[in-house]
Please model this.
Amino acid sequence: MAKVHVTTTVNGEPAEFLCEPNDTMLDALRGPLGLTGSKEGCASGDCGACSITLDGRLVCSCLMLAAEAEGHEIGTIEGMARGDQLHPLQQKFLEMAALQCGICTSGMLVASDALLKRNSQPSEEEVRFWLAGNLCRCTGYDKIVRAVLETAADMRQQATLEIRQ
Amino acid sequence: MTELRYLSPGTLDEAIAAFAAAGSAARILAGGTDLLVQMRSGAVKPGLIVDIKKIAEMTSIEETADGGFRVGAAVSGMVLAEHGRFGKVWPGVLEGVNLIGSKQVQGRASAGGNLCNGSPAGDSVPAMIAAGAIVTVQGPNGRRQMKVEDVPAGPGRTNLKPGEILVSFTLPPRPPGASDAYLRMIPRTEMDIAVVGCGVNLTMKDGVCTAARVGLGAVAPTVLLVEAAAKALIGSRLEEAALDEAAAACRAACRPIDDKRGTIVYRTKIAGVLLKRTAAIAAKRAGGN
Model:
């Protein structure tokens, strides 16, 4: 099979890789790109463990061909923290024990981040509907939903303080 | 193993030439939320994938000069939701499109794919039928237009000819007092496939229904246009008798299957229930109550 050469942007940095035409974006991330934070759960778009953003929109990387990344911007869990400084969602997930085994966590974080970028003040219902495509077999979701709501409240407060300064 | 090729042409002519030349081995890739699952399970083994998302006409939303909309077949549900006006003019169509899968799936899945996948339970299809949407298809022999309800041929099959690609949906201009709604019945609250889906599009004038279209999904081998239900609503004030008659027409149109999601009896009953609920929402939006 002829390999496909793909030039793209991953977490703001230019990236290129070779892939098979039927490789998924998740294959490319975890293989040639060496970004193993995105997990494979179901490989059929049901569980959300492989969630990434494509041009800022939340997608399952298992439902996208790697070749489709050409010319687009990919965002992964590896792009969330700033060096050693965790993203507020990551910090809150730790503080509130919003994870147990961790397989769903990167997908939960990427999906929650995509929500808060669109809606800084989601209701509990909005959080639950937004995260309906992210399955967790450990937490029962409640801690995750509460962590997202608390992060949103913290980030709104932080934004208010920054405006006042 | 069959050699798989991936193409992402920039023009429709190139896409059609490659798609038609490869015959039944070729698959169109829009959002890929069905195709990649089918490839992964081995249900389809394409020799050629034609990614249509580099073709501007397939990925754009335009308001037409007469006040209608043209929506490219590969526009994702999320992009449609982000559009400033579409959801205000066609809230029911947007509801249908935005019930397809999770937010992740909506980031990719398109109304064009939902229609061409040929599922009797596709959520956007009843709403598109109710809207009176016309699709543009293009193939080796040129362009033609079809009514949305004429596209599905049966589960997993369409009436598109070999080499033809669905290009866009055209939604007609809206008269004052018109709106639409889509409801589906699922036993969960999210992430499921419709047991019954119902799209209703109404025009109300001084409390009287002057135009109506009803689309019904998951109750027959294809999504249905239920003209008898629309006829029962037109000329009425959506009073109980008219709604009962329209609900009966929906039940009469049902030719469902028994499966794990619902029995024939259940689906048939729910078709009538959903007609009433959906019509009430559409009428409220149209300002007719």
User: Anything to note?
Assistant: Chain A has two domains: 4-79, 88-164. The mean pLDDT of chain A is 96. The CA atoms of residues 52 and 58 of chain A lie 6 Å apart.
